[in-house]
């Protein structure tokens, strides 16, 4: 009988202990290892990663698959010793998309409808209406029309917002009511119609620092920025002047260059910045285990794994 796979759980950022039970549920008797002592390194078949320690993946001589435990892979591609001949895969999951739809819809609505003012009125027992702008007259732009961006575009169009999206390549199958833009040539036109801009790009050398002073200047005055991509999409030093000048009216931020956001960071407590601690959505632990094991099985059968990353594109 073939021995069960040996899975290494690797992270320099979080405890990955929570995944061990999910792998045991997905395949009882499986050999899951984590921490500094992984036993004989030649045993490891698959590594499941979130910010793996640099150089670690290169130490497994029989590794067959590098699996991100999330949608993004920037945290793995950052390893200069990444064994690039191996397949690198990510998780794509309806539950994750549903969580992102809920967060982004909330973030758009809470600012567009002035919900912060209602919380203050409620606390002060004041019956006070905020101006109501129809969603039809509020334009939401989504940078990144991948699995998550498309799900958010669809949800916001269903609520009634005017939705546009921007991607690298042209899209022929956008959800009803969503206008598509693509490539560097159409970026300015896209940005000029974003009363709210949502960043759902992957972090690559091309998208690092995408959210900067030049880009803010191309948005309509008073735009709302929502960053649910990665912290390094935003040039943090450019945000405060854009808010101070009124070019941006608010920012809702879920991802930061340094996480947890340091206690003395100027974003905390800023009246126009809403900070959430990278919780826009989460990957279901059982889905991580199931997709990892399914990918290993198809690789062993000589087929292509699901959701493999194009290393040249970086996503
Ligand atoms: P996908 O890989 O499915 O989609 C990426 C999209 O970005 C595609 O539409 C792609 O264009 C576009 N894109 C990539 N590079 C460029 C570029 N240079 N110019 C223009 N468009 C570009 O990613 P997902 O939707 O699954 O996830 C997006 C990101 O969301 C993840 O990488 C991760 O960083 C973040 N995330 C954040 C979470 C949170 O809780 N805050 C949770 C999960 C993910 P094209 O379609 O033409 O290829």
From TrEMBL:
Its EC number is 1.1.1.79, 1.1.1.81. The keyword NAD applies. It comes from the Bacteria. InterPro entries: D-isomer_DH_NAD-bd, NAD(P)-bd_dom_sf. It is an enzyme of class 1 (oxidoreductase). One of its GO terms (molecular function) is glyoxylate reductase (NADPH) activity. It comes from Variovorax ginsengisoli. Residues 107-280 form the D-isomer specific 2-hydroxyacid dehydrogenase NAD-binding domain. This is Glyoxylate/hydroxypyruvate reductase A. Keywords: NAD, Oxidoreductase.
């Amino acid at each position: 009988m073939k021995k069960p796979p040996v899975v290494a759980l690797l992270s320099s950022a979080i405890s990955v202990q929570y995944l061990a039970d999910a792998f045991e549920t997905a395949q009882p008797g499986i050999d899951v290892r984590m921490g500094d002592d992984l036993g004989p390194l030649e045993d490891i078949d698959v590594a499941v990663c979130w910010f793996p320690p640099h150089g670690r993946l290169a130490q497994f001589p029989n590794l067959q698959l590098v699996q991100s435990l999330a949608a993004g892979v920037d945290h793995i591609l950052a390893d200069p010793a990444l064994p690039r001949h191996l397949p690198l895969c990510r998780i794509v999951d309806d539950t994750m998309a549903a969580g992102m739809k809920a967060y982004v819809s909330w973030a758009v609505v809470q600012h567009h409808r002035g919900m912060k003012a209602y919380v203050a009125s409620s606390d002060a027992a004041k019956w006070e209406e905020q101006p109501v702008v129809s969603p039809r007259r509020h334009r939401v732009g989504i940078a990144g029309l991948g699995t998550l961006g498309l799900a958010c575009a669809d949800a916001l169009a269903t609520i009634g917002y005017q939705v546009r999206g921007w991607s690298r390549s042209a899209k022929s199958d956008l959800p009803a009511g969503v206008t598509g833009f693509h490539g560097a040539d159409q970026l300015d036109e896209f940005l000029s119609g974003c009363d709210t801009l949502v960043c759902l790009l992957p972090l690559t050398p091309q998208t690092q620092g995408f959210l900067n002073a030049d880009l803010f200047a191309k948005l309509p005055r008073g735009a709302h920025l929502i960053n649910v991509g990665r912290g390094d999409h935003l040039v943090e030093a450019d945000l405060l002047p854009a808010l101070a000048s009124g070019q941006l009216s608010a920012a809702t931020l879920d991802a930061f260059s340094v996480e947890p956001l340091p206690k003395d960071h100027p974003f905390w407590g800023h009246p126009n910045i809403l900070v959430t601690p990278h919780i826009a959505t989460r990957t279901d632990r059982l889905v991580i285990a199931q997709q990892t094991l399914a990918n290993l099985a198809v690789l062993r059968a000589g087929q292509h794994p699901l959701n493999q990353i194009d290393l040249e594109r970086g996503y």
